[in-house]
Amino acid sequence: MFRKLAIVALLAAVHGQAGALGAGDIAFTSFNADEDGWSLVALADISANTTIYFSDNEWNGSAIGSGGAFNTGESYHQWVSGSSVIAAGTVIRFAAVDAVSLASSVGTLSRAAVSGSTNYGVANSNETIYAYLGSSASAPTSFLAAVTNGDFSVDGTLANTGLTQGVSAIRLNANATSATPDFGQYAGTRSGLTSFADYKTLVNNASNWTVDTTNGTYINVVPDTTAFSISPVPEPSENAMLLAGLGLMFFVIRRRLA
């Protein structure tokens, strides 16, 4: 009985941590400089009324709380997830972020009130977008993901963000470093893995993306918002566990009688 209660308490504690997001718990799944939008997948549950900020200002590379800051000249957005938990695997689209009617498929997207914000669109070259938690749009406390169509060593940086290219950040032109894509979309598998965390290295690998380097027109392209799913390893049934236990007891009795 004690063991059952302990398991229930452990599960409750884990469930209660839903939405305590960290690096890689969300991942970009599309980038569209023509339509000025992007999409991302939740790779962990997102608690109700979570606020996530986005900025295409470049991070200066210093540590948070020790001189770390964004530069100026570009923009900030904030997204509030809504009144319900967003389940891991959900794909969320952010559209026309430079327009008055900017929108998200879940929750509410708006422009963050930061003095000097401008250029609310997504650039078709040398652009980096960071997603993060913060005490305000200009004061990040924890970086979650990043995407660039340039180079993280030039167009912003991942230094002191806790993000890693290929794990929690995606460089779209990683396989063609001279190109500056204006459109990219994850084209890999979205089902069959045993945990959502297993998708991190797939989604952040440019080899699994369809990336345009010809400056085509994608203003009317709607990104794939198919949800991600997992196939957990099945747990032993109660009958199977009972039979295994009886088998072990029979083996012990035989040993004692031998």
TrEMBL record:
Keyword Signal carried by entry: yes
Keywords tagged on the record: Signal
Domain Ice-binding protein C-terminal: start-end pairs: 232-256
Pfam family, one: PEP-CTERM
InterPro entries referenced in this protein's UniProt entry, alphabetically: Ice-binding_C
Signal peptide location: 1-20
NCBIfam families with a match to the protein in the record: PEP_CTERM
Record-given protein name: Ice-binding protein C-terminal domain-containing protein
